[in-house]
C-alpha cells in the first residue's frame, strides 16, 4: 500500500521524500488533485497539520509533517539503509549536513527568494544580508566538496538528497552562472546529483536560471470599506444639569487611575 504525500508536484520539499523513496524502494504517491492554498486549508488537512503547511505524509500510524522528518521516516523504513549512514559516526555526519543544508543554505535562499516574490516586504539591506550569508555557507560547502564527491562517505545519503533539493530552488530561480561560478565544486556537486537516475526521475530536466527574478509588490489585503453612518435625528435641546463639585480624592483617582484603565503597550521583538 502506497503512502500518500500531500504536496504540489513542483514542491522542492516534497522532492526530498520522493527521491528518498526511490532509493529505498518505498512506494509513495502524491495526493491527487492537490491545490496549494485550497487543499491545505481544508478541515481534513488541518487535522494532519494544524499549521496547514506542506508536505504532509499519511502513514498507517498517523500523519507526519516537516519535510526532513518525512524523508527520514521513508529512508528508515528500509532496514540498514545506507542513505542513513553505515556507522554511528556516518549517521551523525548525515544529520550534521542535513542541519547545514537547512540552516546555512535553505534558510538564506528563502530569505532572498520570498521578498522578491512579494511574500514578505522587500528590503535591500535584508536581501544583501541573505546573499552574504548564503555565500558564506556555499563557500564552506565548496571547500569541503573540493576533496569530496558526496557529503558523507562514497555514495549518496539522505544528506545529499536534502542538500540538493535545497540547492534546487537557488539554481533554478535565483543563482545564475555568474553567481555559482564562484563555487565550482558546488556546481559540480549539484549537476552530478541531479543527473543521478533516482534524482532525474523525480526532478526531470533541470535548467539553471538565466536571471534573478524582479521584485514583485507585496500583496496586502485592502482595508474594508466603512458603512455610511446614519445622520442623527435632531433632538430638542435639554438644559444641562449642574453637578456638584467632586471631592479632591475622586479627582486624583481620575488622573492617576487612568494609568490602570489605559495601560501602555510594550513593543515585542518578533522572529521572522
Automatic annotation (TrEMBL):
GO MF annotation, one = glutathione transferase activity
Bias kind Basic and acidic residues: ranges: 226-251
Q: Where is this region: Disordered?
A: 210-257
Please name the CDD domains in this protein's record.
GST_C_EF1Bgamma_like (cd03181), GST_N_EF1Bgamma (cd03044)
Output the Pfam families linked to this UniProt entry: GST_C, GST_N
Which PROSITE patterns does the entry link to? GST_CTER, GST_NTER
Specify the GST N-terminal domain's residue ranges: 1-82
Segments forming domain GST C-terminal: 87-215
* UniProt-listed InterPro entries: EF-1-gamma_plant, Glutathione-S-Trfase_C-like, Glutathione-S-Trfase_C_sf, Glutathione_S-Trfase, Glutathione_S-Trfase_N, GST_C, Thioredoxin-like_sf
Member of which family? Belongs to the GST superfamily.
Function, as annotated: Probably plays a role in anchoring the complex to other cellular components.
Please give the PANTHER family that the UniProt record associates with this protein.
ELONGATION FACTOR 1-GAMMA 1-RELATED, ELONGATION FACTOR 1-GAMMA 3
Q: How does it assemble?
A: EF-1 is composed of four subunits: alpha, beta, delta, and gamma.
Q: What is this protein called?
A: Elongation factor 1-gamma
Amino acid at each position: 500500500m502506497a503512502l500518500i504525500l500531500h504536496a504540489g508536484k513542483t514542491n522542492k520539499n516534497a522532492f526530498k521524500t520522493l527521491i528518498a523513496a526511490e532509493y529505498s524502494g518505498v512506494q509513495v504517491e502524491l495526493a491527487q488533485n492537490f491545490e496549494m492554498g485550497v487543499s491545505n486549508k481544508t478541515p481534513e488537512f488541518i487535522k494532519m497539520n494544524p499549521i496547514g503547511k506542506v508536505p504532509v505524509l499519511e502513514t498507517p500510524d498517523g500523519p507526519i509533517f516537516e519535510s526532513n522528518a518525512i524523508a527520514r521516516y521513508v529512508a528508515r523504513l528500509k532496514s540498514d539503509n545506507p542513505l542513513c549512514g553505515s556507522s554511528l559516526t556516518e549517521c551523525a555526519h548525515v544529520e550534521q549536513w542535513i542541519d547545514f543544508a537547512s540552516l546555512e543554505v535553505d534558510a538564506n535562499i528563502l530569505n532572498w527568494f520570498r521578498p522578491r516574490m512579494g511574500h514578505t516586504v522587500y528590503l535591500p539591506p535584508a536581501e544583501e544580508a541573505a546573499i552574504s550569508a548564503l555565500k558564506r555557507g556555499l563557500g564552506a560547502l565548496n571547500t569541503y566538496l573540493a576533496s569530496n564527491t558526496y557529503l558523507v562517505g562514497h555514495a549518496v545519503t539522505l544528506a545529499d538528497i536534502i542538500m540538493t533539493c535545497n540547492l534546487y530552488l537557488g539554481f533554478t530561480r535565483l543563482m545564475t552562472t555568474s553567481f555559482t561560478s564562484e563555487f565550482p565544486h558546488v556546481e559540480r556537486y549539484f549537476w552530478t546529483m541531479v543527473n543521478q537516475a533516482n534524482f532525474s526521475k523525480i526532478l526531470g530536466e533541470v535548467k539553471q536560471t538565466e536571471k534573478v527574478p524582479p521584485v514583485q509588490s507585496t500583496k496586502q489585503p485592502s482595508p474594508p470599506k466603512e458603512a455610511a453612518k446614519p445622520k442623527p435625528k435632531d433632538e430638542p435641546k435639554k438644559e444641562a444639569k449642574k453637578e456638584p463639585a467632586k471631592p479632591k480624592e475622586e479627582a486624583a483617582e481620575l488622573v492617576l487611575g487612568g494609568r490602570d484603565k489605559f495601560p501602555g503597550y510594550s513593543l515585542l521583538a518578533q522572529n521572522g
